[in-house]
Amino acid sequence: MNETAGFLRRYFGVVAREETYLNLIYLVLAFPLGTVYFVFLVTGLSVGIGTAIIWIGIPILLAVFAASWGLAMFERMLAEVLLREDIAPMSRQEDAETSAWERLKAHLGNRVTWTSLVYLFLKFPIATLFFTIAVTVVATAVAMLIAPFIYKLWDYPSWWGIWQVDTLGEALIATVLGLVIVGPISLHITNFLAWVSGTFARVMLGRLED
After folding, report:
1. What are the backbone dihedrals phi and psi of residue 92, each rounded to the nearest 5 degrees, phi first?
2. pLDDT tens digits for 69-124?
3. Which of 57, 96, 113, 175 has an alpha carbon within 20 to 30 A of 122's alpha carbon?
4. Is the pTM of this model over 0.85?
5. What is the rounded CA–CA span in Å between residue 109 and residue 72?
């Protein structure tokens, strides 16, 4: 009995948890941010590498790497604030007397310098996939919840060609299913996607040795 009650609390409790909606915000933001990162990196690296032979590309590449580090710091902050991830620092605290050359060598030798760049590249395809899944499952749940109010307004869409809502009774059944099954499951799915995103950010944007 206690196990059943615990399961039901976890199952339906997802609706009332603040983390659920923070996760949704993160997944929604990830898609436009990932698009911006990808376009910026592809454009910057292409121009920088293409013009490196005449030296103009060198400062462009340096600017791209510097900007990518700043973007990675921003992503790390988002993961910590929205996903509540505890991510290790991206680099060691350098002594104030360390020379610029030593700092550059330490930066280039830092694993996170390169994993954060990979993270920014992969953000676009991963965010696109997760955003599509999240929007699909949440939109399906919302459509079922409000079915009694909108099923007469237009040809109500069928779900996967299986069920077409044509009557008030069917709309009420859709609402019940949305409340009891589809709604909570859709939020559990988005929470899982956010957990995967947070784990990916923790591994790629923080020093593992810390």
Report:
1. -75, 150
2. 999 999 999 999 999 999 998 887 655 566 777 777 777 778 899 999 999 999 99
3. 57
4. yes
5. 17
Q: Looking at this protein, which amino acid is placed at residue 81?
A: V
The label of the residue with tokens 């954060």 reads 116
* 163, β-bridge pairs: 159
Q: Measure the CA dihedral 203/25/68/195, to 10°.
A: 10
DSSP string, 5-51: HHHHHHHHHTTT-HHHHHHHHHHHHHHHHHHHHHHHHHHHHHHHHHT
Judge contact between 72 and 116, C-beta under 8 A: yes
Q: What is the mean pLDDT of residues 130-137?
A: 94
For tokens 């799915």, what's the residue?
A: 189
Amino acid identity of 47? V
| 178-207 mean pLDDT | 94
